[in-house]
Amino acid sequence: MSLTADSPVHSSSSDDFAAFLDAELDSASDVSPDQHEVENEEAEGEEEVEDEEGQDEDGGDGDDLDDGASDSSRYYKILCEAWISSRGEPAETSGASLALDICSHPGVMGGMCIRCGQKVENESGVAFGYIHKNLRLADDEIARLRDKDLKNLLRHKKLYLVLDLDHTLLNSARLADISAEELYLKDQREVLPDALRSNLFKLDWIHMMTKLRPFVHTFLKEASSLFEMYIYTMGERPYALEMASLLDPGGIYFHSRVIAQGDCTQRHQKGLDVVVGQESAVLILDDTEAVWGKHKENLILMERYHFFTSSCRQFGLKCKSLSATKSDENEAEGALASVLKVLQQIHSLFFDPERRDNIMERDVRQVLKQVRKEILKGCKIVFTRVFPTQFQAENHHLWKLAEQLGATCSTEVDQSVTHVVSMDAGTDKSRWAVKEKKFLVHPRWIEAANYLWRKPLEENFLVSS
Amino acid sequence: MFFHIVLERNMQLHPRHFGRDLREKLVSKLMKDVEGTCSGRHGFIVAITGIESVGKGLIRDGTGFVTFPVKYQCVVFRPFKGEILEAVVTMVNKMGFFAEAGPVQIFVSNHLIPDDMEFQSGDVPNYTTSDGSVKIQKESEVRLKIIGTRVDATEIFCIGTIKDDFLGVISDPGANA
Ligand SMILES: [Zn+2]
């Protein structure tokens, strides 16, 4: 503080100007406490020295303002101009107080209202960290944005599509977890077939290898014409952005719509609360149902894509990974190709020009339900040796799933039954099925129907005795 | 706004630099340390233009390091509320757009974009007037007015508006395409 006493600012004849300077400098008072004029490379033990704006060694008698010879007086001149122009519009306080009366502070970024620029202390609302690290929006504002955005989107005949990354669009493994059988991916890149090489990435800086799911490029291209797409992953932000750049090297599909773990408002849950999209127009593709607790009706469950051995191991699968057998999911008939057909179907049902109802009131969840009901339509299913004894059959997830897929379920066999779902070919009902020439299938047949969005071939799901 | 001001900083120097070119060492270290940084109070230090004085060094006990108080002239940039700035758009989304004026990041929310400009999603998100004559997208240059500033130790962030006379697009990268 030693220099403050000598500071010519305080002896200046221009008190107004000094006051202006103070006001301007204080307007930065939202700032962190780093206000020492003299910066120390090492703060502790150093004497604090104030130099203020006291460059005008002549005591500011006004005359040097005109001479412009020294740098410090030129600085003074600039400040003076700032001062003069600021008198025309004293925006600091009066402008803000005017706005205070009418502004509801719909959102806050960096501690300031996004509409009136006022400082806002209150930290309520929903954080949209993926847009900006310090952005929060009030519930009303989110509702307003959603409504406005939906109208806009529907006018362009689009819906929202939220995409999970891992096991849905791609598979990643840590470099350290690459097994001996998979080393060829790392070490013999040059000899890999083109289709594999162009979709396999070794990302040394994050110690990962990533394999994009077959068909993903076509999928994104086609889906982008029908949907506004989001990435939503439980992975961390740097990883999510890295994956987004692999999937979307041109930066045309996702833009700022990449949501990562840190953006979720609830632990271990993904929520549509941070998606600026009306729930009635959102479809979700994800391989994990449990994270979408509140939004199961929007979800299309994906069969997991396990390319790497470590991925299979992580999910307790005993089978060989695709990488170990040097194979891959079928491009034309894989999960992404079949789900694309479903998305196209849902989209065209939603925007069906024959529909007479108000488009703003349509709900894509209803359409999804309706499409799903077509998959096993006409099938009548009886279960045997699938549920634990004592289990209330109607509450079992396979029973419910079969019904969602459009099948009717029954506990008793009769001639109208089409499929007997069994874990054991030796039960009475299984033997009845064989005798009556009904289909006898493994429970995986129902799960496959759910993933494939069509009735799977029964002979691929035979029951072993 | 740009200012030419004098700032002071205590520079620590290792004894190995003591010698004939001590002053140059101090200056080059100073440039490296402060140019491009942001001081909460003064804004961004754009460039050092001269050294006013180098004070007496103070030997620090036990280390041999010496601390010199250095007064230097520099150009700083600091935006003020009410100031009009020209900035380049860096990101456009449904909440508004971000723009940069040198080191300063500015957010213009859709409340402060003229009502006749609508958000358009798609390959290149943008705000466009209904007749398509004016478009704001990434790389557009806009003239905006600052309505709020937040100056931190390391960055300056502003809220801006283009909802006023003579504000808005001054050059549109899509126009030549
Ligand atoms: Zn406000």
Automatic annotation (TrEMBL), chain A:
Superkingdom in the source lineage: Eukaryota
Protein name (database record): RNA polymerase II C-terminal domain phosphatase-like 4 isoform X1
Gene source species: Nicotiana tabacum
TrEMBL record, chain B:
UniProt-listed InterPro entries: NA-bd_OB-fold (IPR012340), RNA_pol_Rpb7-like_N_sf (IPR036898), Rpb7-like (IPR045113), Rpb7-like_N (IPR005576), S1_domain (IPR003029)
Domain of life per record: Eukaryota
Transmembrane segments: none
Purpose of the protein: DNA-dependent RNA polymerase which catalyzes the transcription of DNA into RNA using the four ribonucleoside triphosphates as substrates.
Keyword line: DNA-directed RNA polymerase, Nucleus, Transcription
PANTHER family attached to this UniProt entry: DNA-DIRECTED RNA POLYMERASE II SUBUNIT RPB7, DNA-DIRECTED RNA POLYMERASE II, III
Domain (RNA polymerase Rpb7-like N-terminal): residue spans on this chain: 8-64
Localization per record: Nucleus
Signal peptide residues on this chain, from the entry's feature table: none
Gene: LOC107803663
Record Pfam families: S1, SHS2_Rpb7-N
GO biological process, one term: transcription initiation at RNA polymerase II promoter
Family listed: Belongs to the eukaryotic RPB7/RPC8 RNA polymerase subunit family.
Protein name listed in UniProt: DNA-directed RNA polymerase subunit
First-listed, main subcellular location of the protein, grouped into a coarse class: nucleus
Assigned GO CC terms: P-body; RNA polymerase II, core complex
Domain (S1 motif) ranges: 79-156
Entry keyword annotation includes Transport: no
Record-linked Gene3D superfamilies: Nucleic acid-binding proteins, RNA polymerase Rpb7-like, N-terminal domain
GO molecular function: single-stranded DNA binding; single-stranded RNA binding; translation initiation factor binding
